[in-house]
Amino acid sequence: MNCTHVNFQMNRRDFFARFGLGLGGVALTGLMADRVLGAPAPSPTNPFQGVMDAPHFAPKAKRIIYLFMSGGPSQMDLFDHKPKLNEMQGQDLPASVRMGQRLTGMSANQATLPIAGSPFKFAQYGQGGAWMSELLPWTSKIADELCFVKSLHTEAINHDPAITFFQTGSQIAGRPSMGAWLSYGLGSANENLPAFVVLISKDRIDQPLYARLWGNGFLPSLHQGVQFRSGKEPVLFLQNPDGIERAGRRQMLDRLAELHTQQFQDLGDPEINTRVAQYEMAYRMQASVPDTLDVSHEPDSVKDLYGPEAKNPGSFAANCLLARRMAERNVRFIQLYHPGWDHHGGLPKGIRRQCQDIDQACYGLITDLKQRGLLDETLVVWGGEFGRTNYCQGKLTKDDFGRDHHPRCFTAWLAGGGVKPGMSYGATDEFGYNVAENPVHVHDFQATILRLLGIDHERLTFKFQGRYFRLTDVHGNVVKSILA
């Protein structure tokens, strides 16, 4: 055969189309089988089925509602009572306490680091004696339902890497988010709603929140979070365009599925089935989303639990009510973001406003879940990406001050879903600057959350670019002391 007559115009797409079921198909099969050690690949006929045949452990929780306080709440003004700071008000932070630890560029050049005690009164609540600020009168009523972790610490000192670290297990963008990992591992428990839903409080955006925080990273795209918004179009591009009726959409999807089935047989690309599954989910969501978001039939007594803002769509309180409705419908991971906690200045006024947003709503959510018998199987998590400094950023005055970012120690709380209620774990020093007892790293926190859903964080992995990745990257220990 004369080589000059061979057609060299075949492009890369044509090559894989023709030979994808040969050596390429064998390689694809191997890659898909290796996605999770000891776990099969998702079923091509049901991409929403998780890769795990069954949980690694008996799960304590079936779902998570994660209340993320974006910006970094001040732990010593909310939960970590430190009277020593008030005694030393205005004095420079001792070098023996700071120990040369790095500061942000916003306070590193200050001549002094004046200690700022909390202007808010603290008291102990519940049988567990949890210290809580006067800013949280409603949350204090459920103190015995909460498990406080007061020794959290992180490696990131600025917002973008710190939020990304909590959401994805890495400071560098591109990894799958926690909700995506859960969707991938456990699958969806409701075929009419996404496994992973995101709600963001309106009117509180003082810093960007980007879709990669709830993205799928290198996992199949069906595992990314779906953002629900307030207003006429809660999910963008979900409704049919003008002139397209539901019956016509159904026929189009049926024909499209036939074409995609043929394409999958030719190419073996799993993203083809993912695309079909997402089309079908969108079709079902056209009916399920309006029902889920319709709170008109909720009695006033329930709305009153969450506070007056529960009737204001898009508020944190309204989103907490929606989170409970989604929990009833077995949405696997419900992520609420409430920005506005970045108080470099004007902290007394700013944190008071933030607590008014979230205090009664958190109380209402926990109370509502408990009354409905859902709290035991729903893990509720509250916390931000880091804490705040015990010293003032900028000028300290009698009535006003600010606090800088502080990754060395901060507080989060958990409720329901298999955690011990009415306890505090870990402690900080008398200055609230360093962890003094039982440090909990971000990866420890993530490993513990996964364990409560029956997942061994070391075994839920995905092979990408030659190595196995997981949410906790290369380390992390379950905090067994807080498990019920």
Tell me what you see in this structure.
- With 484 residues, the protein is α/β, with parallel strands linked by helices.
- It has one domain (47-237, 299-482): Alkaline Phosphatase, subunit A, CATH 3.40.720.
- It contains twelve helices and 17 strands.
- The chain has helices at residues 12-19, 23-33, 83-87, 95-98, 159-168, 178-186, 246-267, 270-293, 300-306, 316-328, 347-371, 442-452, and strands at 63-68, 122-125, 130-133, 146-153, 196-200, 226-228, 333-337, 378-383, 387-392, 403-406, 410-415, 423-425, 427-428, 435-437, 440-441, 462-464, 467-469.
- Strands 1, 4, 5, 6, 7, 8, 11, 12 and 15 form a nine-stranded mixed sheet that branches. A two-stranded antiparallel ribbon has the order 2-3.
- Strand 13 (427-428) and strand 14 form a beta hairpin.
- Helix 7 (246-267) packs antiparallel against helix 8 (270-293).
- The protein starts with 11 loop residues before the first helix and ends in a 15-residue tail after the last strand.
- The model is unreliable at 1-10 and 13-42 (pLDDT under 50).
Write the layout of secondary structure elements.
Blueprint: H1 12-19, H2 23-33, E1 63-68, H3 83-87, H4 95-98, E2 122-125, E3 130-133, E4 146-153, H5 159-168, H6 178-186, E5 196-200, E6 226-228, H7 246-267, H8 270-293, H9 300-306, H10 316-328, E7 333-337, H11 347-371, E8 378-383, E9 387-392, E10 403-406, E11 410-415, E12 423-425, E13 427-428, E14 435-437, E15 440-441, H12 442-452, E16 462-464, E17 467-469
Parallel strand pairs: 1-7, 1-8, 4-12, 4-15, 5-6, 5-7
Antiparallel strand pairs: 2-3, 4-11, 8-11, 9-10, 13-14, 16-17
Helix pairs in contact: 7-8, 9-11, 10-11
